[in-house]
Amino acid sequence: MKKNWLIILIVAGIISGGSALIFCDKIKTQKIESKSEAKIHSAYSQIVELYGNLNVEPQSGPDQKIGGISSHHFFVTNKIASFMAGLKSIDPATIVILGPNHFGAGSQDILMSGYDYETPWGTLENDKNIGSRLINSGSAFNEEEPFEREHSISTLVGFIKYYLPQTKIVPIIFKLNTPQVKADKLADELIKNLDDDSFVLASVDFSHHVNRQTAIDQDKESIKAIENFDLEKIYSLKLDSPASIYVLLKYLEAKDAKQIEYKNTNAADLLGNPDYKDVTSYVFAYFN
After folding, report:
1. Whole-angstrom Cα distance, residue 158 to residue 77?
2. Rounded to an integer, what distance in angstroms lies between the CA atom of residue 266 and that of residue 277?
3. What residues make up the domain containing 96?
4. What is the pLDDT of residue 32?
5. Which of 191, 118, 181, 189 is CA-nearest to residue 148?
6. CA 100 from chain center: how many Å?
7. Whole-model pTM?
8. 42, 154, 181, 216: least buried by Cβ within 10 Å?
């Protein structure tokens, strides 16, 4: 019972943005900072129970999966788990994770980490070969400090290690106003450098801080643009990282992987509270 109450309290803090989340962030930041000297970052949490039920049904999708979209909100751990379990069928050698730079940290618009990540299930390795090629091309820049607090990456690494223990990652984050020309350059380099056994994943949450109906309306517009590969519209959508989605779609377009299978939900529906006012929405998608 005590463990259950701990989970409930921490999740409540995540939803409300209250003191419980601030407290967890302080603990997490201290742990990460202690690891940074050893050239390793940390998963968002090292507490196994906070990852929820990992014995979930894999999300349905095509046999061949080239790329995808997942939330990085710890509130939807079961949805993230189901999405990652669905990747077991392809067991990618490398997952390139594209996510927002929530804090605008670092000196460059597009940053990449070269460190491994410590998770509750062992060390998730960084694919340094691909990372080096991106750095050498000038399409991404290596700075480690911004990744110490960046949950668009750290939320997902534990799930990846649990379901795909041999997979390596290339973590990349984008500042909010990353110019399209820079995103184009990175997409071109991913197209050149990724093998067929790679998977490109946009770690992106959709609507933020709105009511349920607004989230539904905004998501319809966003999903329609993504389904249609309307690249010119992506930067105007209600997403926390338009550049991540843009680079993903450019990559998928080059791979002729434009068929999408997705699930869409939001915090109000998951809470069973249609009057909830601070809604975040989520898309979990595979592209074939």
Report:
1. 11
2. 11
3. 2-287
4. 33
5. 118
6. 8
7. 0.88
8. 181
